[in-house]
Amino acid sequence: MDQFLQKFFPAVYEKEKNAAAGNQYCKFNSHLLTLFTSSLYLAALIASFFAAATTRAFGRKISMVVGGTIFLIGAILNGAAQNVLMLIIGRLLLGVGIGYANQSVPVYLAEMAPAKIRGALNIGFQMATTIGISAANLVNYGTGQMKGDYGWRISLGLAAVPAIIMTVGAIFLPDTPNSLIERGQTHQAREMLQKIRGVDDVNAEFQDLIDASEASRQIEHPWRNIMELKYRPHLVIVCFIPFFQQLTGINVIMFYAPVLFKTLGFGDNAALMSAVITGLVNVVATLVSVFTVDKFGRRFLFLQGGIQMIICQIAVGCIVGSVFGVKGEGTFSKGMGDIALTFICLYVAAFAWSWGPLGWLVPSEIFPLEIRSAGQSINVSVNMFFTFIIGQAFLSMLCQMKFGLFFFFAGFVLIMTLFVYFLLPETKNVPIEEMNRVWKAHWFWGKYIPDDAVGVHASTSYIKSDFLLNSKSDIRRFSKEEKGKGVDSGKEATSWSNDLSEGNGGELGEGVTSGATHKKSLKQKRKVILGSNVLLIDRNLRHNLTAIGSFKFLHQKSVSVVEVQRQETSSTDIEVDKVLLQWLVVLNVAA
Ligand SMILES: OC[C@H]1O[C@](O)(CO)[C@@H](O)[C@@H]1O
After folding, report:
1. Which atom of ligand 1 is nearest to the CA of 286?
2. Which UniProt keywords apply (predicted)?
3. pTM exceeds 0.80
4. What interface predicted TM-score (ipTM) does this complex get?
5. Separation of 378 CA from ligand 1 center, angstroms?
6. 3-state secondary structure 310-370
């Protein structure tokens, strides 16, 4: 807004006015202005490390309260700013608030969410980000129409609203069971788990949390650990994903949409209106990913989104180049402006259902437990660092590279799309604790993962039956691998599964109780199975399995298969039946 520029950045204001007919690419180029925008991210980067310590020692909700309060002070300082210093200090405080929120909220969500909707809830975080950006654009559009010195103050001051919601909201939120255990409040943790899951029997999950907490306590130096060779694939991915997310150039649009559109010759109002449009596209398209991410998978969205972004960026580069040329002189006709805006919207949409949410989701789900929090901090800080760099560099890059800037980003999106194609394994529907299996099966990363990292830890490696049954491609892969292996249990299993298939329709759990014949055939075969054979295990049954005997993992590629050495304890027979049935059903589907 002109009044804002006049008050704090008069030189930029003058330049903008005088550049009306001159070089459009450089009219907003000011280091002070970009420092104002991007300083927030530097503060967020540093704060995220402090937040990690707070979150661990005092719990997730305390971090949210701290973050919300600091953000609130920042918003007040900004709204009341009398000089650039106040403005920048306010902005730094907003950054600290964001660092805290980015660290604690995703952890909170991940720990509270039932596994089944963890993906969708995780994307809820990015969803909230896009709603926030969009709301801000709308507010700016409204306040941009105001006369006098108020508009920008209201814009900046209204950041207090989300700050208050977050602070007050967090006070009323319960703490996560994980965090309670971490702080020694085991009893409360169990009660909380029962409350949020809505059932009394939470033994298996509670045990998981205890195991997880113990495992992470044993790791004294997660930062040193993460450097080990066996974590190299995770480390590379967690550095590149946030780096690439920012190198899509999305924040050029998000931070500077009004400036960009003004540069492209849109009037003040049209520029703000266009920002509103891109903001709304961002929200709606993020919603698309909520509903598709577990169906089509991460890779599909990454690759599709990447290709769409490349096309759009090249189109925008060509349009801007043809109108403004290298000298940066010219103006958009209405028609050309609309075409450019359409491509920018298509670009934002592609980002919003791919790199936007997946940039947070994928890094949060690829790590084994013992280094998950360290990995998450790297993710946040790399993201913030490159947000800072892009925020800081964009206006001078536009001035230097002109329309070539759009090709520059297109080049990066091409590189990151190839990166995903070759180096990112699909993590859709894979339980977090099974993730090493995915790495082990990867053509390139597989060699980094030691055999014993896949499934040796009973507590961190097991398989969920619904994952296997839902994922047809996994089943196909499984059957291909198992066929002709000559493991006699495998052969036999196929024929048992034929028995089982009658009337069962592949429904898990029904066979044992509903079909007497199935039960009989299971009984007959059980002893073979329990001698020294292979089984698939389900998360809920692993404690029972541990109880009945030792087991060891045989194949790690596409499914976890365990060898069970059974001790004769008849009380757990029924559980064993369930395990058998599950295994047979899977093989049945595979066959
Ligand atoms: O939706 C756009 C927003 O999404 C992010 O890439 C990740 O949360 C932000 O950096 C950006 O401003």
Report:
1. 1
2. Sugar transport, Transport
3. no
4. 0.95
5. 17
6. HHHHHHHHHHHHHHHCCCCCCCCCHHHHHHHHHHHHHHHHHHHHCHHHHHHHHHHHCCCHH
